[in-house]
Amino acid sequence: MLAAPGIRVNGDPVWLGLRVLEDHDEIQAGPGERLFFSAERLAEIVPCPGGPRPVHCPRCHQLIEPGQLAVQCPGCQTWHHQTAQLPCWSYDARCALCPQPTALDAGLTWTPDQAHA
Ligand SMILES: [Zn+2]
Ligand SMILES: [Zn+2]
């Protein structure tokens, strides 16, 4: 990120006007103006867009067909089936490959309020 003079990240002035933002950094653009940077995304059931290579589900090890309903893990970006026959994403409480919770209504696991409570 390129920062103008006076911008602070996590309360520190930004030296040389350049800083690589880390997850959960707090950006103060001015008095009373606070932005938060988070890499988190919500898990969503969407038709798998497919890709240049076949996509395999880490839970059942079967191919995920383009257009088949699936969830892309917000944590590790891995696609899992999420159909009536193959509820691979919600099969377990966590992603097959990373600690990301699979509850679709869990919301984000981090909010600015928690970080500064
Ligand atoms: Zn699967
Ligand atoms: Zn994952």
Q: What sort of overall outline do the alpha carbons produce when their principal axes are compared? A: elongated
Order of helices and strands: EEEEEEEEEH
Report the end-to-end length measured between terminal Cα atoms: 27 Å
Largest sheet: 4 strands, antiparallel
The tally of beta strands, per DSSP, is: 9
Tally the helices: what do you get?
1
Q: Indicate the CATH architecture of the largest domain.
A: 2-Layer Sandwich
Give the strand line-up of the largest sheet.
2-1-3-4
- Stretches with pLDDT under 50, minimum 5 residues: none
The level-1 CATH class of the largest domain: Alpha Beta
User: Which percent range describes the beta-strand content?
Assistant: 15-25%
CATH topology of the largest domain: Wheat Germ Agglutinin (Isolectin 2), domain 1
- The share of residues in helices is under 10%
Mean pLDDT: 78
Which compounds are bound in this model?
zinc ion
